[in-house]
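Researcher: Next sequence.
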Amino acid sequence: MFRRNFGVARREPPESAPHRLLTGYKESFISLSVTELIDIFRALADPTRLRVVALLREMELAIGELAAVLGQSQPRVSRHVRILVEAGIVDRRREGSWVFLRIAANGAVGEIIGQAEKWPFSAREALVIAHDARRLAAVREERAAAAARYFADHAAEWDAIRSRHIAESEVEAAMLAMMHNRRLGHLLDIGTGTGRMAEIFAPTARRITALDRSPEMLRIARAKLAGQPVPIDLLQGDFLNLPLADASTDSIVIHQALHFAHEPDRVIAEAGRVLRGGGHLLIVDFAPHEDEDLRTLAAHARLGFSDAQIRGWFASAGLLLETTQTLGGGDLAVKLWLGRRRSDEDQNPATESGPSKRLAA
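Model: Next structure:
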């Protein structure tokens, strides 16, 4: 091997085997990084794919929604999306029969796409972007309209359940008070439904993952949560098999969802698995009751929970029951149970904070 130095060929000293291996590894690493960058720039070198990237920077979209905004066929848009996915620019996630897309969050792509607002678009390109923005606004309006239709169709049954317990505004006030001054960090909302819990905790969380098994409910939540001040990931999944890594969340909320579980102990164990040491789990549900209508008409698998049940399930999941609260004011008492994942600085569980205690909204 020779190296040119001011026009004179000079033989390099022989390298040791470990040094050659290290050099080869570094060259492979550099080549791989350059290859990835080439793939990224090649994928971006197309007007339609640039439009896709610009739209996904604004909001997460389904392929069908992208096709509607771009005015192109779904198969054609899918081909463009496949190229962006293969280049690592876009992540895709299936939700029922829909596939949703968003800009990938990894380093190189994030930095490149983050400069999109500074790209020098021509006057003609600016007109196309403005046209896409108007169509994107129509997508937002349709999502909101679909959510409104769903609410209208189910308003009677939801109102019937709400009428049996304290006002939801008071429940939310109690939840916010119980989590006050506790680090929310990455918050997981299990059984997000319409996204209300993610909405009320967004001002104090760093990031939120909102999970539900129903694609219809996730579409409502997506419309409700547009424009929140923190990143919110909406995931379809089951509370018995959370699609999250061990110890990956700082706090968890399960609001009026545990009563749908036939094995609530497994739900709590799974929540404990993804909770970091010292993190908090807040469960809000009904105290034990005998309203069989909720079982037959609203698919409730469990008719409320006792403190002893929750305490036992928490203990099995490595959680300490820190405090509980009861909110009366109706046929059904609402309970709040706050647990903490065991860490090096364990505290003794707190006791009931008072029978039928109610917080003002």
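Model: The first strand starts at residue 2 and ends at 5. The CA atoms of residues 180 and 204 lie 9 Å apart.
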